Amino acid sequence: MLLSKEQVNRFFFMWGQACRTQGWTAGKGFSAVQINVKRKEFLARFGFSSLTLVTKKDGFTKVKNELIILISNNTNIKAAQEAEDPLLNKARNFRWVIRNEILPCLGVYEDNPLGYMRKVMADKNRWWKLDRPESEITLEDLDAKPTTRFKDGELQEFPSTLEQLMMTLNARVHDKRREAGHSIRDMKALAGLATVRTAEPEPVPAGHREEVPDENVPF
Fold first, then answer.
1. Strand, helix or coil for residue 93
2. CA angle, corner 83, sides to 78 and 85, nearest 5?
3. Per residue in 159-183, pLDDT tens?
4. How remote is the C-alpha of 114 from its chain's centroid?
5. Which residues does 61 contact at the CB level (< 8 Å), separation at least 6?
6. What digits encode the pLDDT tens for the residues 74-130?
7. Calpha distance 91→105 (Å, rounded)
8. Cα angle value 153/155/157 (rounded, 5°)
9. Which element (helix H / strand E) includes 96?
10. Contact between residue 164 and residue 120 where contact means Cβ atoms under 8 Å apart
11. In terms of Cα–Cα distance, which of 108, 103, 115, 104 is closest to 180?
12. Which residues fall within 8 angstroms of residue 12, CB to CB, at 6 or more apart?
């Protein structure tokens, strides 16, 4: 089993909700065997022959978003979009890390962390915004799609604009932390981040607040 116990419990709770919404219940004439077949067919749509093979991050996020669609009878548009494009979920998580973990830590060492971040974004990405070069770049202008460019005569793939920003800000925060003689715990306490998470939490479906890893490189 690749999933945590909490993820497995959440899956079966949501699966029960989906079955009730879709009418796959004993009250609607479905046997336990038929319901189990429906579950296997559902997982097979994502390339998993069993729940034990669902991966902890991207796989589980995809499964949960599809369950939300079933539970909502196809009315949760955001979940549907993320089911089609998992990079939307990845982008949300990157933005959450930047806003809720990196910027507070940057604020320990910079009076205007948001302005500092915007300058970094403009320096790294302004040439992608020639259609409106005078406008202020925002996190929403960046995405989680890998970038490509020619290097050494070959087209190569590089991290997305959001991931590049996260790594750059993260590196600078830790440079400033070391210059100040702070430990990671000191920095987080000064930033008002009460806890230091040591385990990577599970991904969350669209429409919920993301819980994200809190590691020093990258956050």
1. helix
2. 95
3. 888 999 999 999 999 999 999 999 9
4. 21
5. 82, 86, 89, 203, 204, 205
6. 776 665 555 556 677 788 889 999 999 999 999 999 999 999 999 898 887 754 554
7. 20
8. 135
9. helix 87-97
10. no
11. 108
12. none
Q: Domain segments of the chain: what residues?
A: 5-84, 87-191
Tokens of 16: 């029960």
Q: What is the three-class DSSP state of 115?
A: helix
Cross-strand partners of 156: 149
- Residue 31 CA from chain centroid, whole number: 37
Give SS3 for 158: strand
d(CA 199, CA 115): 31
Long-range contacts of 19-26 (CB under 8 A, 24+ apart): 21/70, 21/71, 21/72, 21/73, 22/70
pLDDT at residue 184, rounded to an integer: 94
H or E element in which residue 151 lies: strand 147-151
Contact 214, 166 (CB under 8 A): no
Contact 15, 67 (CB under 8 A): yes
From residue 125, how far is each of 91, 98, 99, 146, 169 by CA, in Å? 16, 17, 18, 14, 14
